[in-house]
Specification:
Elements: H1 2-11, H2 18-25, H3 29-32, E1 37-41, E2 47-50, E3 53-57, E4 63-64, H4 75-85, H5 94-99, E5 101-103, E6 109-119, E7 122-135, H6 145-148, E8 152-153, E9 157-158, E10 161-165, H7 171-183, E11 194-198, E12 206-207, E13 210-211, E14 219-223, H8 227-237, E15 242-245, H9 251-262, E16 266-272, H10 276-280, H11 285-290, E17 296-301, E18 308-314, E19 319-323
Parallel strand pairs: 10-16, 10-17, 11-14, 11-15, 15-16
Antiparallel strand pairs: 1-2, 1-7, 2-3, 3-4, 5-6, 6-7, 8-9, 12-13, 17-18, 18-19
Helix pairs in contact: 8-9
Amino acid sequence: MIHILKKIERDIYPYLPFQITQLLQQVDEAALKNIIEIRLRTNRPLQLVLPNGSYAVQEHGKLSSDFQKGYICSEVDVTHTIQAMSKNSFYALEQELRMGYITLEGGHRVGIAGQAILNDGKLKAIKNISSMNIRISREVKNCAEPILSYLIDHHTRIFNTLIIAPPRCGKTTLLRDIVRSLGSGKINFSSVQVGVVDERSEITACKNGIPTLDIGDSVDVLDGCPKSTGILMLIRSMAPDVIVTDELGREEDVIALSEALHAGVSVITSVHGDCIENVRNRPYVKQLIEEKYFDRYVVLTDRPGIGTVREIISVKDETVLFSRKNDKGASLCC
């Protein structure tokens, strides 16, 4: 438990204004260790998002559901934080800002909102940033262990797997531990070469291209690279047995993914959604679902806790291999 507190102190506090850091340092450790997000909004209350809801932060770090009594973030607070995160150089983060987020060392993703600048109808940049959502990244070793046997075909290959979950349900945390497990040889394979396309620098938390988290010994990472480019690069250059990436969503991602599958490389990836029916209606991903590109679906939920596996489904014969309703003891919590 102390680990996540030290991680927040090391990775997050240096960017925040002194008065906000001082408040957070007074928050009860039992609450702080479970923090999911820190939200700053200009002229509105500082909010901490915990598994059981959102809270304002009052004097002496007291949490309250009454937002009117909490600390109010000033324009200076938000400006200070974004300048510290960008090291006073928005130009250096231009590509990330255009995507609406910044990734900090440690894999923490910071969503931003403000005034959009358009060029020929396309988003060029965001200025006058007024909202920030700092999502705390966690490394939960062995959280994937209960499901690994479902992802392996008699110790001969890794099943193509799609992890389905809404935001804040542990997709990235689970993917991170799958990478570590495969890359550490924990699955009784003689050798598995894993390639990770970490477009948002969240899975492996690279610094200068080198992972800062324990991801195993047989893992190669393309950090900050678009999935559509990185998947094909890894296939051509690194000969992976498995490619892992996060959050499908664009047409080019799906095209590259289908090429990997046709090349005989196993793929483990994720998509936003709360069920297969929901994902089936998503543009581009629909094709992968209808043509049964995947062998396994792993559906996550946040009930009773973040990272709980609701279902594991064998795609080709449409068999439910695991259901939380039928086996409460086999749930996974990240």
